[in-house]
Amino acid sequence: MPKPLDGKNALVTGASRGIGRAIAQRLAADGATVAIGYANRPDAADQVAAAITADGGTAFPLPAPLGTHGDAAALWAAYDRRITAHTTRTGVDIIVNNAAIGRSPDLHTITETQFDELFATNVRAPLFIVQQAHRRLHDNGRIINISSGTARLAMPDIMAYGATKGALDTLTLNLAQLLGPRNITVNSLAPGIVDTDTNAAWLRDDPDAQAWASSLAALGRVGRPDDIAGIAAFLASDDARWVTGRTIDATGGALLGV
Ligand code: NAD
């Protein structure tokens, strides 16, 4: 039976764990050939690719430390070399800019280095990935930037992180305008609190934290990576062809009652 993303090539950054892993698995289940971008855990990226292959999909690990123009150029050079081993189609149809630094110090403690690292990974990297992808990106393509509900909420403890996601949403708007004539859609997907390793220390084993985090969402629970992956799969599909330049809320209705 045909699948919605049959014949499509996808790159997911930061896909060795968490939301990126779930998105990579879902895009592969929907038929795409998926590059599993990773920075420093080849074993974990290998495991994701192996799990996808065991399920009948196609995926391969792609070393992809991110932040600079040179990193993006190296990523695409490695992608070009590796994609041909897995499919006869070159180029890329779907880019998911997922990798990010997820926490940030507060106003009083943040250093210039920490601020710069946050913006390099969360904003500069997606910009240069798209810039360097340009000639490889097929018409009718999809760019999905993983933003955050914190871009639109006052959360002073992580304000610099929230600011990176606000900047990413602005990039989304502008890239959508720029790439629209080629029928390439560009959207942000903004999760609320999701149960991933990055939140494990404060969330997973603390019933009070679980209850507080669940109470923020109208749907009454913390998000799961596959909640986000399903929305990413929709945005990647042909059914989402008329949605572009938007930030899609994926928070389970966070703070609707406030
Ligand atoms: P995570 O920390 O589990 O995974 C992030 C991935 O990004 C990791 O694989 C990490 O290695 C990679 N990464 C970080 N810096 C990198 C760099 N410089 N180069 C290459 N890779 C790098 O995070 P997650 O919880 O799965 O979140 C995924 C995305 O969702 C992020 O963009 C995050 O901001 C966003 N998000 C997460 C939540 C949440 O509650 N988990 C909420 C809102 C938004």
From TrEMBL:
Keyword Transcription belongs to the record: no
Q: Which PROSITE patterns match?
A: ADH_SHORT
What keywords sit in the KW lines?
Oxidoreductase
Write the protein's name: NAD(P)-dependent dehydrogenase (Short-subunit alcohol dehydrogenase family)
Which protein family is named in the record?
Belongs to the short-chain dehydrogenases/reductases (SDR) family.
Which molecular-function annotation in GO is an example for this chain? oxidoreductase activity
InterPro entries noted in UniProt: NAD(P)-bd_dom_sf (IPR036291), Sc_DH/Rdtase_CS (IPR020904), SDR_fam (IPR002347)
Q: Which Pfam families match?
A: adh_short_C2
Note the Gene3D superfamilies from the entry: NAD(P)-binding Rossmann-like Domain
Is Transcription regulation one of the keywords UniProt gives this record?
no
The organism's superkingdom is given as Bacteria
Source lineage: Bacteria, Bacillati, Actinomycetota, Actinomycetes, Streptosporangiales
Which PANTHER family does UniProt cross-reference here? OXIDOREDUCTASE, SHORT-CHAIN DEHYDROGENASE/REDUCTASE FAMILY (AFU_ORTHOLOGUE AFUA_5G02870) (PTHR43639), SHORT-CHAIN DEHYDROGENASE_REDUCTASE FAMILY PROTEIN (PTHR43639:SF1)
